[in-house]
Amino acid sequence: MDYNLLAERLFPHITKTPEEILAQYPKRQLPEGAKVTRMGPSPTGFMHLGNLYGALVDERLAHQSGGVFYLRIEDTDKKREVEGGVQVIIDAFSSFGLPFDEGATLEGDKGDYGPYRQSQRAEIYQTFVKDLMKKGLAYPCFATEEELAQMRAKQEERKENYGYYGEYAVWRDRPMEDIEKELQKGTPYVVRFRSEGNIEHKIKHDDLIKGKMEVTENDQDVVILKSDGIPTYHFAHVVDDHLMGTTVVVRGEEWLATLPVHLQLFRAMGWKPPKYAHTAQLMKIDEVTGTKRKLSKRKDPELALTFYKQQGYPTQSVLEYLMTLLNSNYEEWRRANPEKPMNDFPFSTKKMSVSGALFGIDKLKDVSKNVISRMTAKEVYDEIAAWSRENDPDFYTLFTRDPDYTQAILAIGRGGKKPRKDLALWSDAKPYMDFMFDERFTPDYTMPEHVSNEDARSILTEFDGMFSMEDTPESFFEKMKQIAQNHGYATEMKAYKQNPEQYRGNVGDVSMVVRIAIAGRQNAPDMQLVMQILGEQRVHERIQQCKDALA
RNA sequence: GCUCCGUUAGUGAAGUGGUUAACACGCAAGAUUCUCAUUCUUGAAGCACGGGUUCGACCCCCGUACGGAGUACCA
């Protein structure tokens, strides 16, 4: 068999040599130890947490080492490609603030190692395939889908390993005449790699996350070029990551199974493989079976990145939470350094979980409360405004009507050592503060159990006469005590608890009556501040409204 | 079927050949606060199972079970 002849017969249009292409991708000039990572999503129109999870690892590894983080669009499967898919990818990452140094952008490519869309690299891949073929390491395969299915069925029946290998690799050593005959007929064909691997052999692999392990050598003649002339992931990965100078490949552990194929291809090409970091699968609890399982794009649309934006999770919260999943010592670091930017954290793949990570909403919310509590009122205001504009236009109108007013509300209990942590999502803002807007003020005037409506009215009347915008929290509470005393309520909690029968209630009840009148509910932030923000007029109005309702 | 990976409280997770097996979320109780939100204290709850190696194993080895992934002209 003349392999040169075969290669020329199949790839007459490929005139470049591998050397010429290699020359276009010079070694990157980077400082010692700098890592080059890449994000390689497919434009399927769907981005999920797993993508972000991996991207965060990529981004941290690169930028922490002074390296490069780039975006490569892996659009080798036309069937799954979705219109606007690239836009979805770029939007998703930019909204989470993960900056790519180079790669595909909406305006085209940025950087010297492109093109960064695999669909535009057909000639490059084919050049290397042709070269492989000349060396007898690749061959065309004309097996049809039906033939492959039959092969599989036979293997199942015989309880043999599935796949295209050994005696099943029927096109592996066909004479040129057979090939020529199929070509004449115009039969579609793929190109397969000629594997010399043996499943009796084990390969040692040291994974950045999983550590040392042994995998079985690959004996399958995998497809490297599909019938449309576009490579499979396996081949594109090897060619691109070599040419583009990737030093660390971060990908999901589902790729572990094909690692032997990739290692084999690197070897055949005469290239040094990158380091690999296989991340644990992001899991969820299946609602039906109650068991853990890999999150699925089809079944779990709620795990799309867009879901979290719609629900109103701050992007920073999602990132912080993912970081806690990624590196278990992150939380500890965050407690010690509450003010530092996340990127100051020394991220390490060694601290990553080797088993699955289950995404938990409760934990996310906890992280989010802390994240939001660290923001200023202005920042929170801007975020809620942006969120509600998209997702709750009615509330947006109210919320932004008087920015100073709204921000004053948001400023209550903010800053200081023990900040309030009322908000986990931007959507929490509405129930938290809606009583501050007259349009949304829907009071529930149910008084505490042992406070009669008459008492309540009397308390309110007295308070109405005493209230002053000049009050401080201290003077306000003094007034509460005074009213309590005048009505036979205990002024001290302790005194009341010791002898509850001696009082009609306690100062807490008095405050509660005022709170219910002003806020229309039993829990609200600091009343004195709330009243200052509402203004004298509305305080009086609300007290009157409550008294009327109780009459 | 075959290959590979995994298994520490409800969840995430640290960790070591000899420990009272961290920590966080959640849960429960209590304290503080006029309510709530905070904050603090305390509590319940764990090394999948069976062998072996060893003076000693959660940790090392071998099985079993369970879970996951892959086994495509998808990535």
Q: If you had to describe this structure to a student in words, what would you say it looks like?
A:
This protein has 551 residues and is of the alpha/beta class. Among the domains are: 3-16 and 122-279, Rossmann fold (3-Layer(aba) Sandwich), CATH 3.40.50; 377-423, no CATH class; 453-550, Arc Repressor Mutant, subunit A (Orthogonal Bundle). Helix content is 45%, strand content 11%. The strands form 6 sheets. Strands 1-2-3-4 form a 4-stranded mixed sheet, covered by helices on one side. A hairpin with a 3-residue loop joins strand 7 (202-207) and strand 8. Helix 1 (3-10) runs antiparallel to helix 5. The radius of gyration is 33 Å and the shape is elongated. The relative contact order is 0.08. The mean pLDDT is 88.
> Which architecture of the domain at 3-16 and 122-279 does the CATH hierarchy give at level 2?
3-Layer(aba) Sandwich
- Binned strand content: 5-15%
Instruction: Point out poorly predicted stretches.
Output: none
Q: What radius of gyration results from the CA coordinates?
A: 33 Å
Helix content: 40-55%
Strand order of the largest sheet: 1-2-3-4
Question: How would a textbook summarize the main sheet?
Answer: 4 strands, mixed
What multimeric state do the chains show? single chain
Mean pLDDT: 88
First CA to last CA: what distance?
104 Å
Can you identify the CATH superfamily of the domain at 3-16 and 122-279?
HUPs
CATH topology of the domain at 3-16 and 122-279: Rossmann fold
Would you state the CATH class of the domain at 3-16 and 122-279?
Alpha Beta
Number of helices, where a helix is a run of at least 4 consecutive DSSP H or I residues: 23
Record field, number of beta strands: 16
What form results from the Cα inertia axes?
Answer: elongated
The assigned structural class equals: alpha/beta
